[in-house]
Automatic annotation (TrEMBL):
PANTHER family given in the database record: ALIPHATIC SULFONATES IMPORT ATP-BINDING PROTEIN SSUB, TAURINE IMPORT ATP-BINDING PROTEIN-RELATED
Domain of life: Bacteria
Name of the protein in question: ABC transporter ATP-binding protein
Keywords, alphabetical: ATP-binding, Nucleotide-binding, Transport
Residue ranges of every copy of the ABC transporter domain listed in the record: 5-238
Protein family according to the UniProt entry: Belongs to the ABC transporter superfamily.
Pfam families assigned to the protein according to its UniProt record, in alphabetical order: ABC_tran
Organism listed in the record: Thetidibacter halocola
Keyword ATP-binding found: yes
Cited CDD domains: ABC_NrtD_SsuB_transporters (cd03293)
Amino acid sequence: MTNLIEIKGVTHAYQTPNGPLPVLDNLNIAVPEGEFAAVVGPSGCGKSTLTRLIAGLMKPDTGEVWLHGERVKSPRKTVGMAFQNPVLLEWRSILDNVILPLEIVAPSMPRKQREARAEELLALVGLQGFESKRPSELSGGMRQRASLCRSIVHKPDVLIMDEPFGALDAFTREDLWQTMHALRASEPFTAVLITHDLRESVYLGDQVFVLSGRPARTQYVLDVHYPQAEGLRKLEGLYTPECAQMLATLREQIQIAQGRHPEQAVH
Ligand SMILES: Nc1ncnc2c1ncn2[C@@H]1O[C@H](COP(=O)(O)OP(=O)(O)OP(=O)(O)O)[C@@H](O)[C@H]1O
């Protein structure tokens, strides 16, 4: 399988009034086409910086970022992004919010075709019948569903998500996890998910990259062998011994990344 995303030896420091702040240190990450990479690490270690580099919104000091065999040097249209707080435009309907990227990326696409594409996605995430509503008429979970549709409506090669479910309650979050799997099944894409939730990383990820404390390097990579070979992953799988073992490993790695020896950690 070819790697759709390759981060090779990336090092980056922000220039601050107090001098350079090293954030990434010789970071290496490879994500094969169609796979879902989850990235976890201590708060402030550089995860969001990594997403900006992949999207081409920033250039690293040294090292290279490659997408689809092309070196990333500027913002890319073929990247979709989703964030914790979905910024939907209140003066547009939900349908028109979802259509927005198509207006930019595919301006010649007929309106009817854009609408059909957005309607198809909204139905897939359970928002059929809400197309004409305004964002404020929807719950937080529904807004995040609409935002996910907007981030993939133009069929990006890569979907980058920076804690997209972080602000949702636990039940809504689990619903959204299942929606993600349903979306992936009908709209295959390669994804990078930044999260603080280890269960989320195991439920959604094919690989989980644990970053060290700042400046971040790749400390550990977990290949997720979800205890279910076929079909969409079931939530119950998270309560099996296999998942418990993977979660224990990740928790231990996070404690090491935080500079705490696992045995000293408060349980
Ligand atoms: N534009 C900037 N200029 C200076 N420092 C920055 C800038 N952006 C981020 N930082 C600093 O770089 C470090 C890494 O930030 P980043 O947002 O990438 O971390 P993170 O791992 O995503 O954090 P969190 O887990 O808390 O969301 C932080 O210490 C942050 O304060």
